[in-house]
Every structure is written in structure tokens, then in C-alpha cells.
Amino acid sequence: MNYSSLAIPRLSDFLFGVCPRPLTLKNGLVIGGGQVYPEINFTLDSMIITAESMPQVYEQYTQMITGVCDRAVELHAPGLVVEFELLPDLTLVPEWGAEVTKILRSTLDETEAKHGLKTGLRVTPNDIREFARPPLMRQGRYVEDMFRSFELCAEAGADMLAIESTGGKEIHDEAILNGDLPMSVFALGVLGSRDMAYLWERITEISRRCGVVPSGDSACGFANTAMVLAEQHFIPRVWAAVIRVLTVARSLVAFEHGAVGPNKDCAYEGPYIKAITGYPIALEGAEASVAHLSPIGNIAKAVPDLWSNESVQNVKLLGAMAPTVSVEQLIYATRLMNVASARGAKEAGMLRDWWVESDSHLDPQAYVLRPDVVLKISEEIIAEPTPYKRTRRSAFAALEVLRQANAAGELNLSKMENRWLERLSRAAEGLPEDEDEFIAGILPQVNRKKIALSEYGL
Amino acid sequence: MIIDDIKQAVIEGDATEVKKLVALALEQQVPAEEILKNGMISGMGEVGRLFEEGEYFVPEMLIAARAMQGGLGILRPVLVEQDVKSAGKVVLGTVKGDLHDIGKNLVGMMLEGAGFQIVDLGTDVSPEKFIEAIREHQPDIVGMSALLTTTMPNMDKTIKAFNEAGVRQSVKVMVGGAPVTKKYAGEIGADGFAPDANQATAEAKKLLVG
Fold it and tell me: Hey, is the C-beta of B145 within 8 angstroms of any chain A C-beta?
């Protein structure tokens, strides 16, 4: 499957809660079929995970899922998706992650049976391949354990499988800090994309065999790392915005190799994926500030099909335990979206536009998530045939959009940000069209101690 | 004056110029310590100020840091010969089970710019590896980083291991990372805490004075 046209070409059809290819879970919950559902994610409070502490781990997860389900029932949530993002230790010992999956499944099933609340469970094993340094992407015990974790979690009751894969991250962190656009393009458009093709063939195969949904990936380790660094004023915001768009071609590879959505919540490239593929997406924004700050809290609400909190620690707040508080926030946010949708596409579009307008002029990272900008750039991306060429085109398109917005006064970039916009534009001009030429030019600059290039077929 | 030129070249991140000027200054018999402190460290101090005021981002700081490293490559043998001490030696690492290293790397870069000598142990560093590094490198400070709530407790374990190995008293321990708080640092018996990479240098200096 190679996408060459937009699944959602018209802005008026690009809305939250609806998509051309909705997903129906086994219990009938339809994602992207008209309603936006909360997708809650929670994690352990501070503790060390060992065989001895596993009873406490299971107890915490039982407490968290019970609190969340009870509150969802009390607030009349029309549906609920839970994401269980495995901590590294719970993937390193796949049986532990599977046991937690069983606990979550059991409570979700009980809630559904007792109260009729339709639920879904997404399970996201950790990309533990990074534990080998340099990471071995296609061989060794970490790869084997990671895929075993997918299988065991699927057998233990996951409805959907996902991952936040890290192929290319070995060199991308430095590219972010150095403001090195060609190296970022190499990490995402060449390394990451090759890894995604390998990974998603396997995840799709496991999913089909186990009867679960191969949902989606996220460029979190790339673009969200950049976003958080920009929030701390470590890197320019225009650079973080460009990296966001650079991740699109990479994340699209998952869908070209079997993923069917919903794309991961922390994948802010999701609107592009939805526009291109038509599959549903999860997103997160204001309610995800429990995990990280961002300048895109409202605009992220423009087109999601699941609305998430990223992840919250199991700590006590004045209201209740944090996961319970968090699910309440998500339920209220989605309630408003669903009321707007019920009124009609015009009203939903109005709410979408208010959210867009409230963020888009304040930060270039928000600007590149404007639905009209997403459609424009997505069209350019899929005009190219390969991940490298698409990533290269993403750079050109994102920079052009930002330059035009700045010139038109739709963005008010500082002197420093302007200097970086020019600098990145010059760097983009140097990207050759030919992938082999690009790779030959960049390889001498790659730190070979950090990456095993042979794992990427290089 | 050549010292001012070295400082300016560091601020501008011009590695070639820094190297050329440091070599020239040595030829002119300028004391190595003066080149280091009033030229390069002072230049990095100005870079830090520009960063604090939003005039520079990390990429510009890294370029300046690399320019300083270029100069240090020429200056280091002379500093050793003249027994010029660094601001302090710091062993850095992300604790066991944690693979995040951007924050730690930024702390290392900023400390280096302030004249500290850095030994970076990388990520997923076990207590044993930290202890081995203390014995081998005899640092003034050990800096530990963690980004996960489930790896942060390994800071506590590592400090306890330092006590058991009898090396705790020989070093100051500094901790940081997203889930780490000053309160937690106090609870586990760390000597210092920095909420972000910006404040790590000031905290390290404070620890060595105190």
C-alpha cells in the first residue's frame, strides 16, 4: 500500500470523531464512527519493579483501572479506551506485562458486563531494543522479548497493539540539539522509515495471528522530545515545528505495512496520518499536561477520534487518585466534542475552528497542526514516492508554510526564531533529491559508535 | 588583547580561531590558567548568559562548547604540566534501567563549559558501575539522572550502595530528572538537586564551596 491521494481532501470533512475508515472492535465499539471517546493511560507511582514487588505492581494497576472504570460509569461516558503502555521492565519480562494486561482486561470486561460501558484496551510494549548499545534493531534477546511481549499481551486480552518505536533515535537526539536538519532527515526519512517497515510487518503478522488490531506508532521519541526541549527554551520552536512535520512520512510507513489505527495518542503527526490514510487517530493536548507541557493543548482537539491524557502517575490528589481525576477531565472534554458533533458537521467544524484559532497564531508548532495546513502539506508529502523524498518534501513544505505565515503576520516569530527559520531553510536547500547521493553525503558525519548501520541495511 | 579575542571566538563558536589564538597565546607565554579561565571559561560564561537571556539556544551553546574543546585540546597538556586544577571532576550517569540521556548530556555540556572535567558513564548505569568509576576517577561529584518514576528509586539504591562500598564520604552526590524533587533528593541523602540543566552548574559550584 503506497498512499498517493488524500483520504480526507476537504477541510469541511476533516473533523473530530469521524473518519473514512472507522475501526470496530470485537465488542462493537466503533472508533472514528461519530463519537470521540476518552483514552486513558496511567502509570505506577515511584517504585522499583522486581519479581518481589510484582504483587504491589498488580495491586496498583487493579486500583487504577477500578477507579477509572467506576468514574467512567458514574459520568455516563459513552465508551472508554484504556491504553496500557508497558514500562521497560514489564516488556523485558513479557510475562509481567501480560499479567497486567489480564488484570485490565478482566476489570474492563466486568464493567462492560455490569454497566454496559463499551471499552477497548490498547497495549503498547516498550521498544526495549535500545537496551543494547548501539541498539540491535532486528536481532538479539531484546528483539525476541519485545515481540514475545506483543504476543503474550495479545493473548492476555489486548484489543489493539501499538508501539512508540525508536529506530533512528540513536542519532536523532543529537540532531535535535545540534539543530542539524539533514541528520534529522536521515534519522527519520531513511533509518526510522526502514525500521518501521520491518517492525510493522511483524506487528501486523502477530496481530492477525492473535486476532487483534495493529493500531499505530508514534514519533514521540523524536518530535515530542523536540517539543519538550523547545518548551524549556533549549531549541527554537520553528525547529521543533519542522521536526514534527518531518516525522509524518516515517509514521505513515506503519500504515503502509498493516497498521489500521487508531494512531497513538502522543503522535501529534496524527492529523496528517488521518488526512492521508483515513484511519482514526488518538491525540492528546491540554489534559496531557499531567505528563508534559505543550503549546498545542487546544489545537490538538481539532480532529482526534480518541482523546488522551498521555499518562498519569498513580498519586493522590485532593479530588481522587490521579488516574480517576484524569479520566474525568477526558470525559468532560469529549462530552463537549460529542455534543457539537450531534448538532451537525457545521457546529463540530465551528468548535474545531475555535480550538484551532486559540492556539495556532501563538506557536509555529501549533501552526503546522492547523487542519488546513495539514491538508496542504499532506498533499505535498504524498506527491512523493518514497519515505526519504517525502521527508525531504516535508522540510520544504513546513518551512515554506512557516515563512509565509510569518510574513503574513499569522505568526509572530522572534528575531531568534527568524534567524533559525532562515538557517533551516538554507539547510533544506542542500538536501539532494537522490536518496543514494544523500546517504553517501551524510554517512561520514554519522557517529558510528552510537548506531549499528547494518541493522538498517546500510 | 589576545585573551579577549579567545573569549570572543568562543562566544562566536569559531573553533578554528580559538585553536589558532590559544596556540598563539601560549607562544606569547600567556599563562595557561589565564587562557583557560579568563579566555575560554569566561567566554562560555557569556554564552551561558546569552542562553539565559534567550539570545542563544542549545545548538549555539554546543557550537561554542566545541570551539572551547578545540582550544582545550591544545591547552590541556600545558595545564597538566603546570598542575592547573579544573573546577572539579564530575562523574555523570543515568541510573539503572533508564535509557534517557538528553538531560544528562546537557548537564555535562554546561558543567564542561564552566570548567568542570566530566566523566560520562552513559545510560542504564548500575550502582556497581558508579562505584567503579568513583574508585577509578576519584571525582568531586557524582551526578545521577532519571526520567521514569520506576527508575528514580535506583538513585536511592545507588547512594545506599555507595555507603556500603565505603565511597559515599569521598564524593558529593547530585540528582536531577523529570520525576525528581528537592524533597526526594533530601530523603535519599543526596547533597544537591538541580531542577534542570540550567541550574546544575550553579548547584555543582555550590556543593564544592560548601
Answer: no
Q: How many CA atoms lie within 13 A of A395 on its CB side?
A: 28
CATH number of A11-175+200-236+248-357: 3.20.20.70
Instruction: Give the tens place of pLDDT for each residue, A117-150.
Output: 999 999 999 999 999 989 999 999 999 999 999 9
Domain positions in chain A = 11-175+200-236+248-357
**Cis omega (within 30 of 0) on the bond before A444?**
no
- Residue A202 has a pLDDT of 98
Predicted local distance difference test score (pLDDT) of residue A124 = 98
Shortest distance between the Cα of B30 and any Cα of chain A, in A, equals 33
> pLDDT, tens digit, for every residue of B171-196?
999 999 989 999 999 999 999 999 88
Per the CATH hierarchy, to which homologous superfamily does domain B88-209 belong? Answer: Cobalamin-binding domain (3.40.50.280)
Say how far apart CA B81 and CA B109 lie, in whole Å: 25
- Give the closest residue to A280 by CA, choosing from A263, A295, A293, A294: A263
Give start-end residues of each CATH 1.10.1240.10 domain in chain B.
2-81
Tally helices (H) and strands (E) across chain B: 10, 5
Say if the Cβ atoms of B153 and A48 lie within 8 Å: yes
pLDDT tier, A1 (very low <50, low <70, confident <90, very high otherwise): confident
Interface test with A, best of B124, B145, B150 (most A CBs within 10 A): B150
Number of C-beta neighbours around residue A322 at 10 A: 21
- Residue located via cell numbers 500504515: A255
pLDDT, tens digit (0-9, with 9 covering 90-100), for A260-295: 999 999 999 999 999 999 999 999 999 999 999 999
Query: Across-strand partners of A169?
Result: none
DSSP letter at A81 equals E
- Rounded to the nearest angstrom, the minimum Cα separation between B40 and chain A is 21
For residue B193, give the H/E element and its range: strand B192-193
Closest CA to A2 of A376, A389, A275, A385: A385
Q: Give me the mean pLDDT over the A1-13 stretch.
A: 95
Query: How much is the average pLDDT of B22-29?
Result: 96
What is the ipTM metric for this complex?
Answer: 0.88
Distance CA B188, CA A191 (A): 41
Residue A150 to residues A31, A113, A121, A260, A264, Cα–Cα distance (Å): 22, 26, 13, 16, 16
According to the model, what pLDDT value does residue A247 have? Answer: 98
pLDDT at B83: 86
Cα–Cα distance list, A370 to A34, A225, A303, A412, A434 (Å) = 21, 21, 10, 16, 30
Scanning B146-205 for CB atoms below 8 A from A yields: 148-150, 152-154, 157, 179, 196-197
Helix runs in B12-166, H state only: 15-27, 32-34, 42-52, 58-81, 102-113, 127-137, 153-165
What's the rounded Cα separation, in Å, for the pair A136 and A134?
A: 6
Return the CATH class of domain B2-81.
Answer: mainly alpha
How many whole angstroms separate alpha carbon B56 and alpha carbon A319?
42
